[in-house]
Design a protein that fits this description.
Length: about 325
């Protein structure tokens, strides 16, 4: 007997996350994969692995895509719904904690804060510029200190006197950290200081002038770092909730949205299948010079034929796409 699932895909610059949820909205299978600059190959491998976990008997009723690579993912897998990360993370958080008021989300390359009222997004802010407020900043400093990133949080919790590190800029923070090493501070105090610096940077960039109300959910890969959780709770003087599936909440939200879409529309899914990604796909970019916007157009082709384009503000290229995936926002 075939199991019926809804598939969610969150394709980002650092990770590609996939989940299968059942009719009741529970996560049955999940994957957290490093994108490694190869989103198509990573997505293809992830789908193969999911098929294996579901023993090849899975019936996919609907598919949702999100993340910075959502347009690409939506096209490749035949998504029924393609939504932005704010929407996907909010839906997932609300499913976990219906009273949620604030969502803190920190990934490898960007971060965001989302405010909800009665389950509806009322405000949000994103950081895609400053590396000092993202997971990649911690990865670099862990490498410099020669400790595995997985141990970063436990080091921070052992600190007795966390040092004050300038966290407004990644370059200054790194320079300040090196100075603290040279003056003899122990690794534990430096790491705790780095965690607090990242949290201050995050709050100054995204939450300045905003009221952070509980319940607060902490999502994204960095939520695994107990040092960052402790730093947030210390600075905010509030408790954080880290969901069980903190690392795939975007994909979880996309799957929930796909389920809701199909329950409303009643149509058949566009899903291409676990092995449906074509082998001869090519992706390239070009700069459109038809107007002063100078948009970077991303184009995906198969067998020399352009299948889809996006990145244009006016819609000239995307409107001419030969294939389109689901509803997009």
């Amino acid at each position: 007997m075939n199991e019926t699932y809804y598939l969610g895909a969150d394709v980002g610059s650092v990770s590609t996350n996939l989940v299968l949820i059942n009719e009741h909205g529970s996560i049955c299978h999940k994957l957290y994969l490093k994108t490694g600059g190869h989103p198509v190959e990573t997505l293809k491998n992830g789908l193969r692995e999911l098929a294996g976990r579901a023993c090849g008997s899975a019936s996919i009723k609907a598919v949702g895509a999100t993340g910075s690579g959502r347009q690409l993912a939506g096209l490749l897998i035949g998504a029924d719904v393609v939504k932005n990360e704010i929407t996907a993370h909010s839906v997932a958080a609300y499913s976990v904690e219906p009273r949620v008021r604030t969502i803190l989300e920190i990934g490898g390359q960007d971060s965001k804060i989302i405010f909800l009222k009665n389950g509806v997004v009322c405000d949000f802010a994103m950081n895609t510029v400053c590396a000092a407020g993202t997971g990649s900043f911690l990865d670099r400093q862990a490498a410099r200190l020669e400790i595995p990133i997985e141990a970063f949080g436990s080091y921070a919790l052992r600190a007795r006197n966390p040092v004050r590190i300038a966290g407004r800029c990644a370059v200054f923070a790194e320079s300040d950290m090196i100075h603290k090493q040279q003056t003899g501070h122990c690794k534990e105090d430096i790491i705790a200081g780095l965690c607090e610096a990242l949290v201050r940077n995050y709050l100054n960039n995204l939450a300045k002038g905003k009221q952070i109300e509980a319940p607060i959910l902490f999502q994204g890969g960095v939520a695994a770092n107990v040092g960052i959780v402790a730093a947030f709770e210390k600075i905010l003087n509030q408790r954080l909730i880290v969901p069980r599936y903190y690392d795939v909440m975007g994909a979880y939200g996309a799957a929930i949205l796909a389920r809701e879409e199909m329950e409303t529309s009643g149509r058949e899914s566009r899903f291409c299948g676990f092995h449906g990604i074509e082998e001869d796909l090519s992706i390239n970019s070009m700069e459109c010079k038809d107007c002063p916007n100078m948009c970077e157009i991303i184009r995906i082709s198969s067998g020399g034929r352009a299948m889809a384009c996006w990145g244009d503000r006016c819609g000239k290229w995307s409107a001419a796409s030969a294939v389109k995936a689901g509803s997009r926002t």
